[in-house]
Amino acid sequence: MRTFLAVLMATAVATCALAAPQVVKEWSFNTPGDNEGWTKANHITGLKVADGALQGAITDWDPFLTGPQFEIPASPWQAVEIRLKTDDDGNGEIFWTNTTESAYGGFSPGKETHFTVTGDNEWHEYRIQPFWQGEGKIILLRLDLPAAKGGGKTFAVDWIRIVDLGAAAPVDASRWNFAGGLQGWSLSGSGAVQPGAGGVQFAATGKDCQLLSPPLRLPAEDKWNVHLRLTATGSDSAGILWASDKASGLHRQTFPLRADGQPHVYNLDLSGAGGWTGNCLLFGLSLPEGAKGTLQTVALTTDPEGPADVEITGFFAEDALNRAGRDCPLSLTLTNHGGAPATGLKIAKLDLPPGVRLMGTGTALNLPEVPPAETIRQRLLVRGDRAVRAPVKATLAGPGAPAAPAVTELVLLPDLKLPKASYVPEPKPVPCDYEIGAYYFPGWGAANRWQCIRDIAPIRKPVLGWYDEGNPECADWQIKWAVENGIKYFSVDWYWSAGGRHLEHWLHNAYMKSKYRQHLKWCMMWANHNAPNTHSEADQRAVTQYWLDHYFTMPEYYRINNMPVVCIWAPGNMRRDMGGSAGAKKLLDISQEMAKAAGYKGIYFTAMCNPDAGAVKVLKDEGYSETQTYHYMGHGGKAANPMRFTFDLVANSSREHWQQFLDIGILPFMPNLATGWDSRPWHGDRGVVITGRTVPLFRQICVEAKKFADEHGIKRLMLAPLNEWGEGSYLEPCAEFGFEMYETVRDVFCSGAIHGAPGAMNRAPTNFGPRDVGLGPYDFTDMDVPPRTSWDFADGGQGWGPMMGIGDFKAENGALTFVTASRDPAVMVSPQGLRANKFTKFVVRIKVADHPTGKDSAQLFWNVGNGTSEALSAKADVIADGQWHDLTLDLGANPRWRGKVTQLRFDPCNTQGVKVAIEEIRLE
What is the pLDDT of residue 10? Predict the structure, then answer.
């Protein structure tokens, strides 16, 4: 019997069919010289048919082959089978499409199926089931092979074919209790299952282990919740998988496993998943390599089920700098994963270090009720009279209480006995032999922007607190800490689209009004996330004139070779909007001409780029002077799960990443020092999660970067983002690391300058926080107020702000006013904890200025569960006559208006260049 590999990896699935496969389309490559239409190759040379196979050599990072056009009806029970040998392990992909119209010849992201390739230069057969039924028909395939940076790898394809697997009769089940056996479920991939009285015992021994349901016919629209009961060890994450008759592809959503060997309840909200629609055809669990345990129940339900099951999701000292002799708040956060409320919980035992005592009464040891799918926070105040570093342990009791105690390390630093200050003390910049820059994300201008950080990753709390980023005093603390730890300038994320600007509160309201800005330079990292076809030569002239009028004249603006620096986030967007590389070059030429006419030597344009020689050559031809990367999130090919791995892999592969840029040699590059990544506060469990970031590992990166720079005469280096708190890429002083990350930068890159040069400082400044000199707090005052359900804008934006496509935004005189800067404008608010079932209407008092049609369309999007999509929205017509109107969007008509809403996004119209005013918004 033929053996097929790569079964259900991420989006590749083994058949659960019973009938013998029938060939629908085949390319056999049996005739020498006849490629059978597989001729369009990228990063592949020597493509030919010989010895009964399609052969070639892989030359670079993105090798693929495109086949000839054909046409077959698309079915969920079809598969692509490939017989392949190659000498390079890695990830393969099959792209599929029903059109030739796209930027990639008909192909597009999201229409691909991944599989794992074995690179032992032996023949292997792979079966990939794409679940492409939503396409209606398939007319093209593309085969992507494992990348081979630097080339030197070969491959051969014996045959490629599409087969019809047939399928068993679908079942209508939505609940499985595995105490009675497998109930039609099957194991796919490397692993083992054993039915038992307590459920299905599983052990995943490879990367592709899946537990799959039988074929289903289950309406998804009223089954939003996935209810699981299972016990697990060996992995801290797993995934759920499903196929829909309305959305192509096998969809996946990861979730955290409580891998403590105890039985736990899980309720996973799918109402925010765009692929959860129509009829569910297949459901399953993806089990990472090493996961073991027992699966007791799987149920697709309307609401959360099961008893209270409380997890300790946080226990730590709230403040980043705690000193002996003053109160230290400890924060205990609890999340209930069950379907019933957790009542009667208490801290049965609190173990404190010697000399540390609980302040106040013991009532704090009685915990409030934790509702289903909710998180609560309890604060305990402790105090120690002397410095201490020791564990604190809290043991909980009550229904649903976790078996393991909460443990944190309490660090009380010595009292510095500093005098009180009336303002931020004067910075004392340290000399440094290198120019160290840092990316800065100005995203923290409202209380609701901090809520997801506070709820999901509160240990990231900055030393400044949950601060108002538009406060000049906060900016002066940031300047002081940066320059006293070796950072010379910030490369600030800057947003412009067709004249619309946003997220400039830090730059315009704080930095430009700060007392100490002369100590810290800055430049733009233009985040040109504009919609397609919204940037032109006229826009380039307008944006350049804005730079000349407002920024380049500042003495603090950072320069290289006496030219102001502008970094471009997406050079490809310029090519897209200007018809190619020649058009993009014309845009940069316009800016250079304008800068020189204004008396400047020119503009030093840098570009975000991957280490690809072809891409760098294009950038040089377009007029860029240097390349950069915003993040390095690589793992050197050693991560078993590229979506979830440890920071030591980043540290150990960073030098290889820099070397790739150096080897290209076409443009200078600026080495990027990785600061981590864990975007769960913003993206839930869908994004990349890098765990285990520590100060020693970051020090390793810094030491390697210094050595690399010294070996190659490099003097400019860039720290990845300082303050991407939502994405988990941060160094700024915080509760997790205090000042240790900053001090690492100073110790590695500045120690010689501080201690060595004659007349230089003999020691570095002592880092301290606002409380140490009697200043602060700077936290937003409305962090703990209930979520708003109405907004009258009497005192500003009340949490609403521009999201995209918005220009000249103002929140004053009882209204929001702005001009739409694109055809997709949006304002947003994050009302954390808003319950959808209490409201059925979204009402807006709005005025949209005249435009030719006199009418337009408004749309509200909302976030629930793990995201948003077009399905999570409501529309209504809006009158565009320059008069006030009350606009009502019917939320109750959409069954996905449910659960806990974490964000509202309002698109007032679909027209660019329109004046909009909003006087009131309310939920009814």
Answer: 32
